[in-house]
Design a protein that fits this description.
Elements (H helix, E strand, L loop, with lengths): L10 E5 L4 H12 L3 E6 L2 H13 L4 E5 L5 H15 L4 E4 L14 H29 L3 E6 L12 H23 L4 E7 L31 E2 L3 E2 H6 L4 H14 L3 E3 L5 H12 L1
Parallel strand pairs: 1-2, 1-4, 2-3, 4-5, 5-6, 6-9
Antiparallel strand pairs: 7-8
Bound molecules: nicotinamide-adenine-dinucleotide.
The site of nicotinamide-adenine-dinucleotide has 31 residues, from helix 1.
Length: 276
């Protein structure tokens, strides 16, 4: 048992659970004695994680879920309630990236990235918040944005649009739930570089949203026009450490979860530019 926030036996739902940050969160919550619901579109790693956590004695449910699909997320909520009778933590974490100059993006790029990163969170909120309210127990929602949800500049245009959306959606949700005196606390996770499979997001891009007759997605993305994203990711923070930040933020009731305080300077200078 912990003092407040999370309790052993609580039920945690994590989207994008099969890899990276989602996997780190699932492992941490399971290690704390929580029941974990793993949701991901990629079946093999999802099944592998389910088996690995079970082998460690965790109570686990894996539900293949495409978060860009409202019915699939509704099914995830139903299955969670059917299996465990309650939900206490929702981590809207699944995300993808693709990058090129913003005017060159195809409609398929926009639909894919906004579909997963922004609509995925919207579907999560719509499916789970009414159930959490009806339940009345202490609940937490952790929406994964990014430091790119707090800054501007060049690079990752669609991704930044989606993550800024997740930040303001989370702020609105938190304030409206507080006004209602609901027993639900909201958090928004804004990490810098994390060592995950994010740059290989294309592995999960649906056939219907592939770009036709185009060059393959570049493996070496340039962030802000100057940085080698793959090198940054490979030397980034471990998902386990990110999960520690999330766990501590839940326990302390912190809304904005910063994993890389050095990036606060960029946020501050953006705000100053706006105000000037
Ligand atoms: N890695 C970083 O440096 C970094 C930094 C800031 C924010 N983030 C955010 O962290 C979150 C997790 O990404 P990650 O870095 O762990 O990458 P990752 O690729 O390792 O994990 C993302 C997971 O999401 C799943 N996914 C993709 N499309 C999906 C869909 N339609 N439905 C359900 N699941 C889907 C993938 O299968 C994968 O398991 C994302 O929202 C990402 O934008 C990552």
């Amino acid at each position: 048992m912990v003092e407040h926030g999370l309790v052993s036996g609580n039920v945690a739902v994590i989207t994008g659970a099969a890899s990276g940050i989602g996997r780190g969160l699932a492992e941490r919550f399971a290690a704390e004695g929580m029941k974990v619901v793993l949701a991901d579109v990629e079946e093999k790693p999802l099944a592998k994680l389910e088996a690995a956590l079970r082998a460690k004695g965790a109570t686990v449910l894996a539900v293949r879920t495409d978060v860009s699909n409202a019915a699939a997320v509704e099914n995830l909520a139903q299955q969670t309630l059917n299996a465990f009778g309650a939900v206490h933590i929702l981590c809207n974490n699944a995300g993808v990236v693709c990058s090129r100059p913003i005017w060159e993006h195809t409609l398929a790029d926009w639909e894919w990235v906004l579909g997963v990163n922004l609509w995925g969170v919207i579907h999560g909120i719509r499916a789970f918040v009414p159930r959490m309210l009806a339940q009345g127990d202490k609940c937490h929602i952790v929406n994964t944005a990014s430091i790119l949800g707090l800054v501007g500049g060049s690079g990752e245009g669609i991704y930044k649009v989606s993550k800024h959306g997740v930040v303001v959606l989370s702020e609105t949700l938190a304030d409206e739930l507080a006004q209602k005196e609901a027993n639900i606390q909201v958090h928004v996770l804004c990490p810098g570089w994390v060592r995950t499979g994010i740059l290989d997001s294309g592995r999960n891009r649906p056939d219907a949203l592939q770009n036709q007759a185009e060059k393959p997605h570049p493996r070496e993305l340039l962030i802000g026009g100057s940085r080698n994203a793959r090198a940054e990711i490979e030397s980034g923070m471990s998902p386990t450490e990110v999960a520690d930040h999330v766990y501590n933020a839940i326990q302390s009731g912190t809304f904005y979860i910063h994993t890389h305080p050095e990036h606060k300077t960029s946020v501050r200078s953006r705000m100053e530019r706006i105000l000037e």
